[in-house]
């Protein structure tokens, strides 16, 4: 008879194999960007949303479309523009006529947010009013309209993109909105070899036919398994001190934090670190989180939760610079 340990070992092996197959299938379309693909998959495996930042043409939208196909999840795309209204996303009440009685009544027509993977393309082009319409869906997985609350299908993920360069006609995401994203991933340029492969694949006459590797119920099972990974007290203390080190003038803040950060990470940042590190532990064949797991997810989990001060903006200091200093200065073992 299999013991609990044997059962967990088998589940973890299946978890790693499923992750490998998904990443391999995505790789048939998306060339390179291994860290980005791994980051997006990690966010999904803990039930979180992801913000992808990069200049146009780097494959952000293609990655999300490919992911939805490989995971066999319902997919909708919203192109965010300044004239987009909340009702265009959430839905609205419409007057409909009953075919039998001829009576008219209000009926809620669901918007594109009623899906499982929502691509919010160029989310920073929408007005703050429209951006705020996403808060409830991202936090609660629900939509409230005309006093009625509607549940979204599970699993539900928002994968948003934004262009960091062209700022004309854009509205920076407010801190409350940014904090709802589990990860912020910065998509960089392709290497020489990767670019050659991209040109070869995309200018020919054939395209890859993708297999469906996972589905919604299986993803929910994997999310539950990830939460069972052990976070030992001494590792949790390191996580807490890393988070507190992002808060200026605190007991664990470092010089870079005090010099360049106006506001540090919220408790949601610490929760993100714990969950993302648990996924990394499983992918490395462990049922306990290590210090290295936390270090690997620290930047994507926290970079968008820092509000930099005027000095940082004047000197061109990015959040990643401060976070790397924190990793350098905060010891694994606390007092």
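Q: What amino acid sequence fits the structure above?
A:
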């Amino acid at each position: 008879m299999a013991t609990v340990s044997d059962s967990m070992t088998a589940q973890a092996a299946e978890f790693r194999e499923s992750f490998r197959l998904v990443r391999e299938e995505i790789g048939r379309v998306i060339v390179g960007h291994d860290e980005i693909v791994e980051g997006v998959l990690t966010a999904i495996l803990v039930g979180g949303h992801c913000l992808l930042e990069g200049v146009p043409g780097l494959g952000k939208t293609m990655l999300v479309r490919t992911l939805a196909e490989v995971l066999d999840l319902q997919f909708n795309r919203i192109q965010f523009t300044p004239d987009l209204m909340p009702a265009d996303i959430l839905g609205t009440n419409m007057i409909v006529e009953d075919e039998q009685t001829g009576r008219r009544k209000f009926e809620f027509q669901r918007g594109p947010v009623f899906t499982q993977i929502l691509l919010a393309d160029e989310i920073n082009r929408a007005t703050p009013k429209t951006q705020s319409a996403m808060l409830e869906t991202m936090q609660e997985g629900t939509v409230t309209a005309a006093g009625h609350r509607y549940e979204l299908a599970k699993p539900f993920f928002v994968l948003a993109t934004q262009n960091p360069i062209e700022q004309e006609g854009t509205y920076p995401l407010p801190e409350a909105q940014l904090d709802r994203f589990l990860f912020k991933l910065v998509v960089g340029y392709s290497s020489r070899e990767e670019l050659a492969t991209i040109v070869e694949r995309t200018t020919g006459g054939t395209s890859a036919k993708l297999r469906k590797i996972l589905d919604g119920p299986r993803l929910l099972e994997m999310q539950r398994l990830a939460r069972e990974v052990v976070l030992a007290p001494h590792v949790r203390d390191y996580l807490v001190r890393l988070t507190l080190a992002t808060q200026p003038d605190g007991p664990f803040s470092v010089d870079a934090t005090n010099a360049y950060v106006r506001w540090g990470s919220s408790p949601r940042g610490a929760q993100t670190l714990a969950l993302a590190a648990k996924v990394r532990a499983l992918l490395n064949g462990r049922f306990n989180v290590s210090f290295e797991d936390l270090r690997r997810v620290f930047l994507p989990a926290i970079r968008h939760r820092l509000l930099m001060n005027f000095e940082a903006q004047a000197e061109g200091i990015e959040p990643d610079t401060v976070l790397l200093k924190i990793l350098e200065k905060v010891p694994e073992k606390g007092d």
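Q: And what stands out in the fold?
A: Residues 1-81+115-203 form a domain with the Rossmann fold fold (CATH 3.40.50.300).
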